[in-house]
Write a structure and sequence with these properties.
The protein has 20 helices and 17 strands. The chain is of the alpha/beta class. The strands form two sheets. The chain has a ten-stranded mixed sheet, sandwiched between helices. A seven-stranded parallel sheet has the order 3-2-1-4-5-6-7, sandwiched between helices. α5 packs parallel to α6. The longest helix is centred in the last third of the chain and has 23 residues. Bound molecules: ligand NAX and potassium ion. The site of potassium ion has 12 residues, from β4 and β5. Potassium ion binds next to β4 and β5. Its cofactor is Mg(2+); K(+).
């Protein structure tokens, strides 16, 4: 599904109004009804309550207009609803003004909040509310919230109420997910047309909670325009990337992958990547590793063949003949987990980039070695696809900048570098960005902080290697690997919460994550 900036959404809305003649008031009404449906569902779950008290917070823009239309629907269906408004009746314009009149004509309660006095007066009501709907600011917010609103928002965040944000939580910047000082912390956000970048970037996901997208009757042709090049991965889309197995399939047709990994003290990284490749369905896995850890690898991963390289504790230039021999019959190669940073290995990387014609994935220490002279990426141009999976630290080394700079511009940097280097770039993090050399970017919504533990990156590499070996094209293989990795962690989090599960468990859970995706009915 596409993800848009505030400006792109305004353009889409304008086109829907202009081309199809859909009145803007109808879009606002549909937006309101989508939120009303969510409020009703939430209210019915509060079965212990005799009546559900709802407070709707409104600002002077169209987000406030949505709030006033929501209030009218709740009022006429007999719900206990009150509007707290940061704008006087005469300050509303257009559709919002009409909705303000309709609500007040229906006898709706409307309290104006214009100073400290009203803030004190409304405090008790806020804490007694069961549901609070945030329609103060939507995609039109510029910069920080006004200080009065900010104080109010802090109070809302301290209540026990279930908070539903309209379009985007007030205080979250729609294009960046940035929060200046404070923002509404919602359990659910109902957004309109398409999700906004701010739902997935920076602090946005933490404040938006569960994001529900409602098309509000905007025709599909406007929601699927080519100009929008950022997407969020969904079950329905990722499911189509899975390779199809036939009854005649065997290990020779299920993909052969080569994993170059491990060094003394980092055997685990290689084992985890290998285990994950097997859990992702690879037909045959060959691991190239230093002699010093080969016997441990043999014991640690019984299903793979282990090919050892003479020499020290890390792989150096002697690895090339072994790698090249193993690659003769393979379909994908991954290099990096626990590799160590022996600079003698750099010429091997050059050879790989120059000669291997099938997809190559570089991770971890392979990326750190590339960072010593990123111009070697030039060897790959026009030869075969390359997938790189840096975390922000590795990306900072590759770009010769600070981690903070990467974190502040994750999407932009990932896309710029994917295009510049001609690679599929997987920039890992709370919302992993998968950027394609053609300039498209895919945001991954799965995963949780439980993945912040040693070895999970190795698991991701193994999984992408397996999808590549099974013939999934590089961009799709990266998306599939990242999405299932997060989904596996989300399934583990249902039992363990956001901590305490291990990378090994994530690898083992991958098979169930894939299965759960296969079983999802098309929505
Ligand atoms: N895009 C669409 O297709 C639709 C959009 N709708 C709603 O319209 C919203 C956007 O409406 P608007 O463009 O009116 O924007 P908002 O409702 O977010 O608010 C804009 C108002 O706030 C003021 N403002 C902005 N930043 C401020 C700041 N830091 N301090 C004080 N005041 C500030 C602006 O001057 C403007 O008056 C969406 O979020 C959505 O809720 C819906 O009505 C349905 C259709
Ligand atoms: K809002």
């Amino acid at each position: 599904m596409r993800v848009v900036s505030a400006q792109q959404m305004r353009e889409i809305e304008k086109q829907a109004i202009g081309v199809y003649g859909i009145p803007s008031l109808l879009l606002m009404e549909n937006a309101a009804l989508a939120v009303v449906q969510e409020i009703r569902q939430t209210a019915t779950q509060m079965i212990f309550k005799e009546s559900c008290k709802t407070i709707i917070l409104v600002g002077k823009g169209n987000n406030g207009g949505d709030g006033l239309a929501i209030a009218r629907h709740l009022l006429i269906s007999g719900m206990d609803v009150t509007v707290f408004s940061f704008a006087k009746t005469e300050e509303f314009h257009g559709d919002a003004a009409l909705n303000c009149h309709l609500y007040q004509n229906a006898g709706g309660r409307f309290f104006l909040i214009e100073g400290e006095k009203q803030l004190r007066f409304t405090r008790l009501a806020l804490h007694q509310a069961d549901i609070i709907v945030d329609a103060i600011y939507g995609t039109g917010l510029r910069g920080a919230l006004p200080s009065l609103v900010e104080e109010f928002v802090e109070e809302v965040n301290q209540t026990q109420a279930y908070v539903i944000a309209v379009d985007i939580p007030s205080g979250v910047e729609a294009d960046t997910g940035k929060i200046y000082r404070s923002a509404i912390r919602a359990q659910t956000t109902v957004t309109f047309g398409l999700p906004k970048l701010g739902h997935f970037m920076a602090k946005g996901p933490e404040y938006a909670g569960r994001v529900i997208v409602d098309p509000i009757s905007i025709p599909d042709q406007f929601l699927t325009q080519e100009e929008v090049s950022t997407f969020v991965l969904t079950d329905d889309e990722v499911k189509t990337f899975l390779p199809v197995r036939t009854l005649q399939g065997h290990k020779g047709t299920h993909g052969k992958g080569v994993l170059v990994a491990g060094s003394t003290g980092m055997t685990g990284a290689a084992i985890l990547a290998g285990r994950s490749a097997l859990r992702s369905g690879i037909g045959l896995l060959q691991i190239v590793t230093p002699r010093s850890i080969a016997s441990q690898m043999d014991l640690g991963i019984t299903e793979a063949t282990i090919w050892s390289v003479e020499g020290e504790n890390t792989l150096g230039n002697q690895a090339w003949p072994v790698i090249s021999e193993k690659c003769r019959t393979a379909q994908a190669l991954a290099i990096g987990p626990g590799l160590g940073q022996n600079t003698d290995f750099i010429p091997v990387l050059e050879e790989v980039l120059r000669t291997i014609e099938f997809p190559v994935l570089l991770d971890a220490d392979a990326l750190n070695l590339v960072a010593q002279g990123p111009e070697i990426l030039g060897w790959r141009q026009g030869r075969g696809s390359l997938i790189m999976t840096p975390h922000p630290g590795e990306m900072a080394r590759l770009c010769d900048c600070s981690v903070q700079e990467i974190e502040n511009n994750r999407l932009e940097i990932a896309v710029t570098k994917a295009v510049e280097w001609g690679v599929v770039l997987v920039l890992k993090g709370a919302v992993t960005v998968i950027a394609s050399p053609d300039g498209r970017a895919f945001l991954n919504p799965t995963g949780n902080p439980g993945l912040g533990t040693g070895g999970t990156g190795d698991v991701l590499t193994g999984s992408i290697l397996a999808w590549l070996a099974q013939g999934v094209p590089p961009l799709e293989a990266a998306c599939l690997g990242v999405y299932l990795h997060g989904k596996a962690a989300d399934e583990l989090a249902r039992d363990f919460g956001w901590s305490g599960f291990t990378a090994t468990e994530v690898a083992d859970q991958l098979v169930k994550a894939r299965r759960s995706l296969e079983l999802i009915e098309k929505g």
